[in-house]
Amino acid sequence: MKNFFIAIVTFAFLLSCTSESTKKETLNTKKVNDFAIIIHGGAGTILKKNMSDEKEAAYKAKLEEAITVGHTILKNGGTSQEAVVKTIQVMEESPLFNAGKGAVFTHEETNELDASFMDGKTLNAGAVAGVTNVKSPIELAVKIMTDSDHVMLSGKGASVFAKEKGLEIVDPSYFFTDRRFESLKRIKNKNKTELDHDDKKAAFYDADIKNAKFGTVGCVALDKNGNIAAGTSTGGMTNKRWGRIGDAPIIGSGTYANNLTCGVSSTGWGEYFIRSQVAYDISAQMEYQQKSLKEATSNVIQDKLTKLGGTGGVVALDKNGNMSFEFNTAGMYRASMDEKGNLVVKIYKE
Q1: Beta carbons of 157 and 129 less than 8 angstroms apart
Q2: Choosing from 68, 87, 132, 216, which is the catalytic residue?
Q3: CB neighbour list of residue 136: distance below 8 Å, 6 or more residues apart
Q4: Are 3 and 10 in contact, with CB atoms under 8 Å apart?
């Protein structure tokens, strides 16, 4: 009788485990969208009280414009790669975001651009760091993936490669904007660098200084063929020195895509995202722990990254079209569109 009781208890336990496993498996395999797209335009201390109505409207309009470009491509049967590139290029060409035309300035008063791209079907990737004269860094990242034997190129060599491949080369002055240059001057006048973040009182009253280590654009898309692609582009950190490179061009930190799980694009304090391998960690938790997209993004951003002292966020999209905005800052410029064309555009934490 005792053995029979033990057998019954053991069977019930195994059944419970199987049920829980099946529940998680179902959670991760339920299709919600045949195609979808999600984007971000940077995270930081973005507060309603510091934002004029005109500026807020401008950001929302540009986010809507960018995501609509990518959604139209997906709706018409285009690839996730094309959707990601074209969407990011809209933001790269806008002075509103810290990427391309709106890139921040280094300590030496130059603009150094980074970008990365990853294909979820092949796990192939391309990245570029520290270029100063390539109009579209995200286009260069893809070209490195498709037309070279390498994953990452940097500096002058990357510019030479871009020119050889026929990409648009611009004079570095193309990236100059008064807004970003004034931000740099204010930071220099306060004798601050972006790694000196202890004087929170001084930073609190100047949003540009407070957010000087944030600001990146990114996109993740799922196309009708079930392929995920992710891309990220940035001007980096205001007042950065010594050729500093953040997480945006680092595969696994700023960008990751895998058709088995999800695609991720990050924005935030890059040093922490590199140390945490934020983008890959989200995918790994889904693959090896059978977590849902929301569970994985929440754990990585709200728990692991926050405990480490890192700030920022991610946009992510899984193989079934589930989407997630996750950030531990006061705001993140963000938008999403599903297969039905339902548009979400947000800025502040809600």
Answers
A1: no
A2: 216
A3: 89, 92, 100, 167, 168
A4: no
Write the DSSP symbol of residue 251: B
Strand partners, 242: none
Q: Pick the closest to residue 186 from 217, 223, 212 (CA basis).
A: 212
Q: Is the dihedral of CA 95, 73, 283, 60 positive or negative?
A: positive
Sheet holding 152-154, edge to edge: 152-154, 125-131, 113-119, 228-234, 217-222, 36-44, 331-337, 343-348
- pLDDT for 1-46, tens place per residue? 555 545 554 544 455 454 444 444 444 568 889 999 999 999 887 8
pTM (2 decimals)?
Answer: 0.87
pLDDT digits (tens, 9 = 90+) for 81-134: 999 999 999 999 999 999 999 999 999 999 999 999 999 999 999 999 999 999
Amino acid at 91: M
Radius of gyration of the chain (CA): 21
Contact 55, 41 (CB under 8 A): no
Residues 147 and 161: their CA atoms lie apart, in Å, by 10
Active site residue 26: no
User: Which amino acid makes up residue 39?
Assistant: I
Distance CA 282, CA 298 (A): 9
Q: What are phi and psi of 182, to 5 degrees?
A: -65, -35
Residue with tokens 């904007």: 177
Tokens linked to 316: 């992510």
CA distances from 218 to 66, 100, 199 (A): 11, 12, 30
